[in-house]
Amino acid sequence: MKTIFWKIEAYVKENLEFHEIREYYVDICLSKKDYDLAIELLVAGKEKEKDRRWIVKEYSLKLKNLYKKTGQDELYEQELWDLILDHKAGNVEIYKELKSIYTDEEWVEKREAIFAKLTRSDRVDRLYLVDGLYDRLIELIINSPGLDLLSQYENILKDLYPQELLHKYENTVNSLVVKSSKRGHYRELVSILRRMLKYPGGREKVSEIVEEWKIKYKRRPAMLDELSRL
Fold it and tell me: For the chain, what are the domain ranges?
C-alpha cells in the first residue's frame, strides 16, 4: 500500500504544471498537516497560473486560510488585501475579515485605501452598507444610472434621505419618458410614479410631472390612457 501511495505521490510531483494535480497534491499536504509545503505549492501556483484569475483566486483563498492557521499574521494580512483589491474585489466577507484585524481607528484609514482602488462594478455599495456609510451610499445611488441600486437600498435609505430619493426618481422618469413609445413602457413609468407617491411630497411631485407630460406628450394616447389609471 505504501508503495502505491509513493508512486502516486511521485507522479503528482512530476506533473505539478497541471492545476488539478497541483490542487490534489495540496490536499495531500493538508491531510498530512504539511502546511509549509502546501503554502509553497500554492504560492508557486499563483505565479504559474497568473493569467487564469479564477485559479489564482482559489489559491489565494487557501493561502489566506493557511497563513491564519499557521499564525503568519503579516502574510495573512497581505493575502486579505490581495483578495479584497483583486482576486475577490469588493467581496463583503473578505472585507469584514480584513476589518476584524484592525482597531476601529485603524480601519477608518484602511477602508479609504480600499474605496480608492475599487470601482462601482466591484459593488462598493455593499461595503458602504457594512460600515453604515449611508452618505456615500446615497451619493452612489444618485449618480448611478437607472433605479436598480435605489430599489436595492430603498427600505434602508427612504427615511434618511426621502427628498434625495424622490429627486432621483423624478430625474429618472423624466429621462425614461423621452425614450418611451410603447404601452408597456408607459405602464412601467406609471409603476415608478406610484412608488413616488409613498414619499413625503411625492403626491405633489407626481401631479406636477403628470400635468407636464399631458401637455408635452399630448399626441401619445397610450401614455395618457396609462396616466389616467394612476
Answer: 1-88, 92-132, 145-230
Half-sphere exposure of residue 228, counting CA atoms within 13 Å on the CB side? 8
191: exposed, middle or buried (C-beta count within 10 Å: 0-12, 13-18, 19+)?
exposed
Intra-chain end-to-end CA distance of the chain, in Å: 78
Give how far the C-alpha of residue 110 lies from the chain's centroid of Cα atoms, to the nearest Å.
18
Domain 1-88 indexed as CATH 1.25.40 = yes
**pLDDT tens digits for 12-42?**
666 566 777 788 889 989 999 999 999 999 9
- Which pTM does this prediction carry? 0.86
